[in-house]
Design brief:
The complex is a heterodimer of chains A (141) and B (194). By secondary structure, chain A is mainly alpha-helical. Chain A has helices at residues 6-18, 28-47, 53-76, 90-96, 99-105, 107-140. Chain A is 74% helix and 0% strand. Chain A starts with 5 loop residues before the first helix and ends with a helix. The model of chain A has no long low-confidence stretch (mean pLDDT 73). With 194 residues, chain B is mainly α. Chain B is built from nine helices and no strands. The radius of gyration of chain B is 19 Å and the shape is elongated. The relative contact order of chain B is 0.11. Classes of the chains: A mainly alpha (141), B mainly alpha (194). Chains A and B meet through α1, α2 and α6 of A and α2, α3, α5, α6 and α7 of B.
């Protein structure tokens, strides 16, 4: 750098040439790596799903199809939905209007429906948690 | 050589991101000296500097997936060291800015130059270390980055968050203060010898 005090600049450069880098204690790397390994294990426990992302995606798609199918079935068989409504509205129709019909006539269907709904909500919460954790990590630095 | 180093670092980073946590040790070994030195310049205490450097490396590990490889890894890491050390000082409520600044006014350059020239390399190293210890932390930090690590001004701006003109002014003043302190130390030494 050319500055207004080249004398000091050159002299300082020469002085620093003799000065080495300070070394931390001998166990610096090992103690740090212990913390890093602990951190890695913690993050795996906290955020690594037991089932891979691809499998989760397939399950989610399957659950959505199942919900759609139940809604469509309810709509087709007049389980409380408006017969003039489009098939995509079947799920909402089922949720809003035909709960009694499902509960009364198809207890197994009701269980599957509630289980599927619960899993979808759980998956969405997990996704939100991951997104928030990622944002938190970025803010931490 | 620098490009080769950067390539090696990129491979290590990719390995860590792929789950090979042990590869992070390679990055630590390469940068721990300078990270510790920079932390020491700011906090002025070896134990605390180790704590700050370790904390900075841990933060770097946690945020490694967000590191964009446009900047050098060292620049990114030193930025973390800098902010971690400043936060540490803030917690301890240590003011790094001196109230008065008597060292900016020295101007007996010729005598100072002769005194420095008369010293051996190890004496110069000893007195420079003493002077750096007495210098305000941010001055010492910026001088170390520029003269010891030979970090370009543009990268110092990224690390400290200062503008280019601010960095240049800080460097100018820090250099002046450093030589002022050196002059005082050498005067005292000469007096003690006589």
């Amino acid at each position: 750098m050319k500055t207004q005090d080249p004398h000091h600049d050159d002299r300082t450069r020469k002085l620093f040439a003799a000065l080495g880098v300070e070394e931390p204690s001998a166990d610096f790397t090992s103690s740090l790596m212990q913390q890093v390994y602990a951190e890695a294990a913690r993050s795996q426990l906290g955020y690594e799903p037991l089932i891979s992302r691809r499998v989760i995606l397939f399950i989610l798609i399957g659950l959505l199809l199942l919900l759609g199918a139940v809604g469509y079935y309810a709509w087709q068989t007049g389980g409380g939905a408006d017969p003039e409504a489009a098939p995509v509205e079947g799920v909402f129709a089922l949720l809003n209007q035909s709960t009694d019909w499902v509960m009364g006539s198809l207890p197994l269907l009701q269980d599957i429906f509630h289980l599927a709904l619960g899993l979808v909500v759980f998956w969405l919460l997990l996704l939100a948690d991951k997104l928030l954790a990622g944002a938190g990590r970025q803010q931490a630095i | 050589m620098q490009q080769k180093d950067d390539q090696a670092e990129k491979i290590w980073i990719d390995r860590v991101l792929a789950g090979d946590t042990g590869a992070f040790a390679l990055l630590v070994k390469k940068h721990q000296g300078m990270a510790f030195t920079l932390a020491l310049k700011l906090v002025k205490n070896r134990e605390e500097a180790e704590e700050v450097a370790q904390d900075a490396f841990l933060k770097a590990y946690r945020a490694l997936s967000t590191y964009q490889q446009k900047a050098r890894f060292s620049t990114w890491l030193y930025r973390i060291v800098y902010t971690t050390a400043l936060n540490h000082l803030k917690k301890k409520k240590i003011n790094t800015v001196p109230v008065d600044d008597p060292y900016l006014d020295h101007e007996n350059l010729a005598e100072h130059q002769n005194q420095l020239d008369a010293l051996t390399a190890s004496e110069q190293k000893h007195f420079l270390s003493l002077a750096l210890e007495r210098l305000p932390g941010d001055d010492s930090f910026i001088l170390t980055l520029y003269y010891l690590e030979e970090t370009p001004i543009a990268e110092i701006c990224q690390i400290t968050g200062l503008t280019e003109s601010n960095v240049k002014i800080k460097l100018f003043r820090a250099r002046k203060r450093l030589h002022g302190i050196l002059e005082q130390i050498l005067k005292k030494e000469t007096k003690d010898l006589l």
